[in-house]
Specification:
The complex is a heterodimer of chains A (490) and B (249). By secondary structure, chain A is of the alpha/beta class. Chain A is 21% helix and 33% strand. Chain A has helices spanning 3-9, 17-28, 35-47, 122-125, 143-154, 156-159, 163-171, 405-413, 418-434, 440-453; strands at 95-100, 103-104, 117-120, 176-180, 185-196, 208-213, 218-227, 234-243, 248-256, 262-271, 276-283, 288-297, 303-312, 317-326, 332-341, 346-355, 363-372, 378-387, 393-401. In chain A, strands 2-1-5-7-9-11-13-15-17-19 form a 10-stranded mixed β-sheet, with helices on one face. Chain A has a 9-stranded mixed β-sheet with strand order 3-4-6-8-10-12-14-16-18. Chain B has 9 helices and 12 strands. Classes of the chains: A alpha/beta (490), B alpha/beta (249). The A-B interface holds A 404-407, 409-418, 420-421, 424-425, 427-432, 459-468, 472-475, 477 and B 48-51, 71-73, 75-77, 81-82, 84, 87-88, 90-94, 96-98, 100-102, 104-106, 109, 117-118, 121, 135, 138-139, 141-142, 158, 162.
């Protein structure tokens, strides 16, 4: 499909004050502009950013965008906090790359050469920049519109959900381009830390990852988002993942940005034949966090796991829209989400599975569960299925409710005090998803963060760690080796 | 001593217990029998403090301490243990974690230091042997995917670990095959001591062959209709509940 055809499918957004301002700011920041930026901006101006009137955007508050300055912060802007390595979470993985407001920071990073793994920042990559718009190899010219439009070939409402990636494409000044060569085995491999330090009024942060995994490789990627300082950051992250045939990827994403941060995120992934991709998304931070995920099963027997855990309090909003598209036959999807909404927070997970014509033998399951832990909290879990072929197996389940009174009474009757019992049940609620984190150090860090989010530490030992496993607070059994809590599915 | 005096309990508008009076001296095992709907399970739940029951009159004391004013966890700290008829599954919380948290909560209440993991495991292993439970039970979610018999064994294991002053076992025998019944009974008998009382709520006489009660009470329409020794249970087994029900009418 050509670019012109694509654009006719998309309802053109009227020029809004917001897009007009984006255009002005873009013109100011043109020093590093290239053709892919220009075309991304054009597409953005044509389509506008999503609004709360868009069906898939109704849960997230988009009004704060009006106060954002979209260009990355400049050296002449307000002073930013000094950062030392000690301010960062303990490193997990063999090689760490740290980005401050979207730009690679050598002094905070500890890159290590790993066989088969190339990590390039833009400075290293020169002008050869991978696009974060799905399908564009080296973003060139008008392709951006054509490619975003190709999703529109199936359904024009879907492609519009990726519009925040256009904003990233237009403004980002650095990124991580990760290439994993054929056959590489690097289970806990690269760790990326994106730090936001700037107030939205002074500039935006654009974390950006291109992650390309060649055939037969087996690799793990850890991606963290944090804030330093107490400014109200605007972060707009874009990630593009390609998994080649027979490759296997574990992708851990932990969002712990500051209490005033606005975090937008767009992740696209393409899976080739027999490729396996598991993305674990832990959302704890931000005032408002929105993730848009779009996974395409392009090859037969591809497998994806989209696992989300979200804990919100006060007036936080966590909203995830996760679309998995079955294009090739016999592929599998597992979507599991657990969200706990405390205080006046709102947690939404909109999980959509689309089975295209010809994608017979699709096997998909969705288990989306929300727990209301605050009197004014809100949970919106929504499994959606669109099936255009026969011979598929699609299960879905969604629940939103309060803690089970029978479970609570059972624990109380055993003498646990009420606070401990409630925390334990919240903890247990997240277990299905958290137990899938197969990197023990990372899982422990996440469990500690969760415990502190559940308001007070739990009694010693992890309540759901398999007994006999590191971190469970129990000694090893007669020298038997510790068993992994959860075997990897692949 | 557990003292229940003129206890009236309603669930919504439904009066379930209607002036129940019962004394269980320390060191004794009492069986509470009765037909369906007579109030047996309600009594068990009210003793443990389950929400949803309204006490409209009467009192319950354990060694002189008013139980009805206490929260469920406070009753547990005072030594009350309820063995559930339908033990609750709690996926995500493993068995050994709950056992240890419960054990240490009780110790904390008594002003004792927490036991360390090693010491605790030694204790639990010994009790598990008695209950013929495999060590793999420890790492499983609380009652998660357990068979009916495994759940009941797990209840008794918890009881053995917590060593309550008053154990109220609500139809612990239901759903057990004969081997499991023996194991569970053996567990209960181990706990018999001059320091504690046991209330066995049961439909059938069968359990009482293995855990021989000091007294048997028949509950009819929320009141004790008849009390006796273990022979009363045998008589009920032969004649059914009707004759007691008729007498009580």
């Amino acid at each position: 499909m050509s670019a012109s055809q694509a654009t006719t499918k998309v309802a053109s957004a009227p020029a809004s004050p917001l897009t007009a301002r984006i255009a002005t700011e873009f013109a100011e920041a043109q020093a590093t502009g290239g053709p892919s930026r220009q075309s991304a901006l054009r597409a953005l101006l044509e389509q506008g950013l999503p609004t709360s009137r868009d069906e898939n955007w109704k849960y997230v508050n988009l009004r704060p965008l009006e106060k954002v300055r979209f260009v990355p912060p400049s050296a002449s802007g307000p002073p930013r906090p000094a950062i030392s390595v000690g301010d960062l979470p303990a490193a997990v993985g063999k090689s760490r790359y740290v980005y401050v407001d979207g730009v690679f920071d050598t002094s905070l990073s500890t890159p290590t050469a790993l066989p088969g793994v190339t990590v390039a920042t833009w400075a290293a990559a020169g002008e050869v920049r991978a696009s974060v718009l799905p399908g564009v190899a080296n973003a060139a010219g008008a392709k951006a519109v054509a490619v975003t439009g190709s999703a529109a070939a199936h359904d024009s409402a879907l492609h519009g959900d990726l519009r925040f990636a256009l904003l990233n494409e237009a403004f980002a000044t650095d990124g991580a381009q990760i290439h994993v060569a054929r056959g590489t085995d690097c289970a806990i491999c690269v760790e990326l830390v994106f730090i936001a330090t700037t107030d939205a009024k002074a500039g935006a942060s654009y974390p950006r990852i291109n992650f390309k995994v060649d055939a037969n490789a087996r690799v793990g990627l850890i991606e963290r988002h944090i804030s330093i300082g107490s400014d109200a950051n605007f972060i707009n992250c874009a990630v593009d993942v390609e998994v080649a045939r027979d490759a296997s990827v574990q992708h851990y994403r932990v969002q712990q940005t500051g209490a005033r941060a606005l975090w937008f995120d767009t992740l696209t992934a393409k899976l080739a034949e027999n490729a396996k991709y598991q993305v674990h998304m832990v959302n704890l931070g931000a005032l408002s966090a929105r993730s848009t995920v779009h996974v395409k099963h392009l090859g037969e027997r591809a497998e994806v796991g989209v696992f989300g855990a979200s804990v919100g309090g006060k007036n936080q909003v966590h909203d995830t829209f996760a679309l998995v598209e079955h294009i090739a036959p016999n592929a599998r999807t597992d979507q599991s989400f657990r969200g706990i909404a405390g205080g006046r927070s709102r947690i939404a997970f909109n999980g959509m599975v689309v089975v295209r014509k010809g994608a017979h033998g699709t096997d998909s399951s969705q288990s989306l569960r929300g727990l209301l832990a605050g009197t004014d909290a809100e949970i919106d879990v929504r499994p959606q299925l669109e099936i255009y072929t026969d011979d598929v197996k699609c299960n879905h389940g969604a629940t939103a409710g309060k803690l089970d009174d029978n479970m609570l009474f059972y624990l109380l009757s055993r003498g646990l005090d009420r606070d401990t019992a409630l925390r334990l049940l919240k903890w247990a609620f997240l277990e299905d998803v958290v137990s899938k984190i197969a990197v023990p150090e990372l899982r422990q860090q996440i469990e500690e963060s969760l415990a502190s989010r559940l308001e007070a530490p739990l009694p010693k030992g992890a309540p759901h760690a398999a007994y006999g496993q590191a971190g469970d607070g129990f000694p090893r059994v007669d020298g038997e080796p510790a068993k992994p809590a959860q075997k990897e599915n692949f | 001593m557990l003292k229940i005096d003129n206890l009236h309990v309603a669930v919504g508008d439904n009066k379930v217990l209607n002036g129940l009076t019962l004394e269980i001296p320390t060191g004794e095992v009492h069986a509470i029998m009765g037909p369906n709907g007579s109030g047996k399970s309600t009594l068990a739940h009210v003793l443990a403090g389950r929400p949803g029951y309204t006490v409209t009159a009467g009192s319950v004391t354990l060694d002189g301490k008013d139980l009805l004013g206490l929260e469920p966890e406070e009753r547990a700290h005072e030594g009350v243990f309820l063995g559930f008829q339908y033990p609750v599954e709690i996926p995500g919380v493993n068995n050994v974690y709950l056992l240890k948290a419960a054990f240490n909560a009780a110790r904390k209440h008594r002003g004792l230091p927490e036991v360390d993991a090693f010491e605790f495991l030694t204790l639990v292993r010994e009790k598990m042997k008695l209950m013929k439970m495999d060590e793999s039970f420890l790492s499983r979610g609380v009652n998660e995917g357990f068979s009916g018999g495994e759940k009941k064994r797990n209840e008794i294991l918890q009881m053995l670990v917590l060593e309550p002053k008053l154990a109220v076992l609500d139809e612990t025998d239901s759903g057990l095959d004969i081997d499991a019944l023996k194991v569970v009974s053996n567990g209960v008998n181990t706990l018999r001591s001059p320091d504690r009382s046991v209330v066995l709520v049961t439909h059938y006489q069968r359990l009482l062959d293995y855990v021989v009660p000091d007294h048997v009470h028949v509950l009819v329409r929320g009141k004790i209709a008849r009390s006796g020794d273990k022979n009363l249970a045998l008589e009920l087994e032969k004649r059914g509940y009707d004759w007691v029900t008729d007498e009580a009418a």
